[in-house]
Amino acid sequence: MSLLSWNCHGLGTPWAFQFLKEITLQKRPDFVFLCEIICKKKTVERLQRAIGFEGLFVVESHGHSGGVAFLWRNKEDVVLKSYSKNHVDTIIHMNNSNLFRVTGVYGEPDKSKRHETWELIRNLSINNNHPWVLIGDMNNVCSQDDKKGGRPYPVSLIQGFLLALDECSLMDLDLQGYQYTWERGVGTSDWIEVRLDLALVTSEFMNMFKDATLTNLEVSTSNHCPLLLEFYKAQQVILNRSFRFENAWLREPMCVSFRIGNGQEVDILNSPWLPSIEDPFVHSNNEAISKQKVASLFRIEWLQLVFEQVNKNDICIQCNSAASIGPVSYWPILPK
């Protein structure tokens, strides 16, 4: 059982829509929370049909910002508790398990109104009697360590946020993977990365789901990375597969280039580092990845059949393929 949370920054774009379809197929979440959908309900309904979910609730955006949506796989599993332009609050009941509470939150982006998000959390916590998780783009950090680059995060916003969490007995669930979920100015001197997307849980929630994990999926078509909250420990399957590049990938419109951790762009269509029979290694100026076999760059969990003519045993390089060796990460850039 799992939940996918993502600030998609506009679900109406074809690449965001396609990305969600593919990542839902791969990760198979039972619930999906989206914020900043910037679209009408009919667009989310089209996504609902595409991914085969039965349940849907949408708060439409007004103008060119905002909007939240909550989707769930089985209609009878979710009861809507409350909603606003910044949240969707639900009660979950699955497989005869005890009830628990899931709230998707889109924090107020205007710093001068950030206190409204804190008050929202306080109001939602009143008379809460269920294990509870709040997840989404909080637009706030818990410490200065959650921000890299630029000016220090305003201390008053950190203190105000932490005070609200303390009063509501909420704690920040540790993030697995890359520690920043939002970025701006990639590859420039103004490059900023911040951990804005969080999962906040009560002790009752952690007692109910002792093995719950929150993972940064580290690949996105927006400036926010999606989060995957897994309620139970996932079983790992280790497979030994060889890498083979398929020409069919070159026809994929979303497979254009990769971005290296230092901001360098690599054109996948005209790149000297693409593997060949004679040279199965990655060419890079970065010593951390030069001489690493290509097959080792791609984690098995991102295997997917994208084209019918591509063998299922092959590793697909596409918009939702990511790789990392130590601190070095690869993820694709979409065409502008």
Automatic annotation (TrEMBL):
InterPro entries: Endo/exonu/phosph_ase_sf, Endo/exonuclease/phosphatase. Residues 4-203 form the Endonuclease/exonuclease/phosphatase domain. SUPFAM superfamilies: DNase I-like. GO terms for molecular function: catalytic activity. It holds the Pfam family Exo_endo_phos. PANTHER family: ENDONUCLEASE_EXONUCLEASE_PHOSPHATASE DOMAIN-CONTAINING PROTEIN (PTHR35218:SF9), RNASE H DOMAIN-CONTAINING PROTEIN (PTHR35218). This is Endo/exonuclease/phosphatase domain-containing protein. It comes from Heracleum sosnowskyi.
